[in-house]
Amino acid sequence: MNEHLSLPDAVEKYLDTLNTALRALPADRRHEIVSEIREHMTERIASGADVNECLASFGDPDLYAAQFITEHKLVDALSSDRSSTMIRVLLNAATKSTQAASVAFCILLVWVLTLPFVFFGIAKLFYPSAVGLWKVGDGFVMGFNRDGATQEVLGWGLPLIGCVALIAAIHASRRLARYGVGKLLANRQNASTL
Hints:
Layout: H1 9-21, H2 27-46, H3 51-58, H4 61-80, H5 83-93, H6 98-126, E1 131-136, E2 139-144, E3 151-152, H7 157-193
Antiparallel strand pairs: 1-2, 1-3
Helix pairs in contact: 1-2, 1-4, 4-7, 5-6, 5-7, 6-7
């Protein structure tokens, strides 16, 4: 629109720094962001705004770029629909977001509860008489029993329960990760519109 207006050196330096800070993004997205910021700055300066105030309103170019990069990572993770990618993004965000930390903790809890069933389910295949869910007094203990004095409750159901638990944990982790990344993205987009 106002492309014929030459921008002050400070603005050009800011845009160069921003472009460099956005190097983690695809070239077309990086160009789109820098062009949009250039247009906003051109319009403000053309309408008489002070150059320093204009630059200050956008903040530090590295921090400003980090916001775009974070949003790009969230969108990529969500669109990939890969649990590992979404969990990695959540873990990176967990230091800055209690919401991400809470979802990451829930995913960890799912696996802490699941892995004993998977481990003992596999162990039951190799040590059928020594591994199981044992009745001990008024309670139950899952694990290895070397003395054979207690009664095994599940029998060959333990490997099946381990398989079901593994499938359920994979599904729950993916749903939790998708929920967490979606919430983080929605929060970022809501914050940017304010």
